[in-house]
Amino acid sequence: MFDKAYCLIIYNWGLCKEYNLCRFSFCYVLVKVKNNENEQRFESYKQNKHCKWRASCEVSSMKVTFLGVGEAFDNDYTHTCILVEAAGRRMLVDCGATAPPSVWHQSKRPDYLDGIFISHFHADHVFGLPALMKRMEEDGRTRPFYLFGPVGAQRNVERLMEVAYPGMVAHLPFTLRFRELQRSHRWDDWNLRVVNTRHSVQNLGLRLEAGSPTKVFCYSGDGMFTPTASKLYTNADLLVHDAYTMDGTVTNPKGETINIGTKTHCSIQQLERLDDMARPKKMALIHLNRNLRKEKADILKKYKQRRWIIPEPRDVIQL
Predict the structure, then answer these.
(1) Model confidence, pTM
(2) Which end of the chain is more exposed for a tag (fewer CB within 10 A), N or C?
(3) In whole angstroms, what is the distance from residue 54 CA to residue 312 CA?
(4) Pairing mode, if any, of strands 176-180 and 145-149?
(5) Is the pLDDT of residue 65 over 60?
(6) Domain at 62-312+314-318, CATH homologous superfamily
């Protein structure tokens, strides 16, 4: 069918597994067409909805993998860590202290990730970085690694790495490229926009637009949303949000109710209001208090009319 066309076909099993494609799929087909007739024939073949090549090779424009969804002191769930893939890039969103093994199970390649977004500087969101960077060094990474975060990110990250592994920053064989975000930043085909939300330390809410057609991923970090954050999250394809409590209170092991308020974390009751204002197509609730998570089934049943999920580790959403 493709006479007078030159095709380069790469179907290495390792690549297929890495990119989550069928083992016998063509991972990449480069066609050099010699005349208009062959070009039209090839385009017709691609557009055929019954074509096996089309079915196996098309991928969605954004993929989100939940590597960690737990709160700071959860004994069963890994700290917050989300992998976003789109437009040829892979970026982690936060990497708490217990998260690195989940990243390494995803891929052992030292250049697997292009960068990370850090919402704020609490241990359960950023203390996994030193181990992540050290393993990249040991495994031979050479290309630059991007770090996006609040103002002061470079100072805080370098100090953290120096405490974890003295001398590490000066001897990394790859460059760390810091981007301290205040409003928006263009990263190749990715557009990142941030706003401050309410937390005990500076925390950035994120809106990420990428892919073709464009998909929108939003992330709250920790904390209570603000009117500005609500506007940032509007019409997101997926909004991942902190949902630490049901109503601003938690119960301790003694059975006592402790009021933690809503100035540092968001409650599920407040997310009802945010959902009505921002109208995301889907909302994922993470960072639930370790006791509240036990009520997952009841929560989803209560809010079954809403487009809410409570993801488990390794869950994947294709946007």
Answers:
(1) 0.81
(2) N
(3) 31
(4) parallel
(5) yes
(6) Ribonuclease Z/Hydroxyacylglutathione hydrolase-like (3.60.15.10)
